[in-house]
Amino acid sequence: MSKGPWLDDDEQKAWRSYLLMKRTLETHLERHLQREFGLSGSDFEILVNLSESESGRMRAFELGRATQWEKSRLSHHLSRMEKRGLVRKEACDARYPEIAITEEGMTAIKECAPVHAARVREFFVDVFGSERLAVLGEVSDEIVETIGRHCDTDCPLERNHGR
């Protein structure tokens, strides 16, 4: 299916439209989270993952895998959230502590999640409609699978940059 390394005009237009839509949507949703609830998009992502886990807690490496964040970014962000009382680190049998959502964190996610979901519906779901949304879901899954295969086979862990 590849026509070569460069995108043609239509492909470039579609790619750039996608990037602009993604940035605009994420920025808009995050601004509402910040203004209305005092949460960043990153706070929301952590709280969603913790609130959806059975125990309200996860190991840091599990959170890192779920968010696809680097270890240092996750560590720094969790420290900031802990200072604000949204999460806490709890000792466990393993070498590293578990990250647990606090009562304050659970209250925050319960307050903002319905409002956030309504905005996602307004600006994303309703714009796509059910048929196009189903296609988007299928294509998104295919893209993630394609990247997964690439990472499992011929994706270099580090790039030499000609040195």
UniProtKB/TrEMBL annotation:
Stored Gene3D superfamilies: Winged helix-like DNA-binding domain superfamily/Winged helix DNA-binding domain
Signal peptide coordinates: none
SUPFAM superfamilies in alphabetical order: Winged helix' DNA-binding domain
Molecular function GO labels: DNA binding; DNA-binding transcription factor activity
One BP annotation, GO: response to stress
Pfam families: MarR_2 (PF12802)
Name assigned to this protein: DNA-binding MarR family transcriptional regulator
Taxonomic source organism: Kribbella shirazensis
